[in-house]
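Interim report to the steering committee. The following record documents the input for Fumarase D (76 residues).
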Amino acid sequence: MIGEADLPVSNEDEVCNIIGRAVVDLSVTGQPVNKATLGLKLLSMADQDKDDERILLYWIARRAINQPQKFAEAGY
């Protein structure tokens, strides 16, 4: 049986998952969810990660939050 972790995930899906995790983390800790707090949370998450590819996805997620039109055009 194939689990969710075994399914291939696109970069766009992974960026959305990263943003979702950041939103949940902020919400659970009672912090406001806005561009500024999301950006800081994503920086913090990237700082704690050791995988270069995932760190790049955190930066892409930050860009998607700050410049959503460019993210949509890039087709991540």
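The mean pLDDT is 85. The committee is asked to note this result when reviewing the revised timeline.
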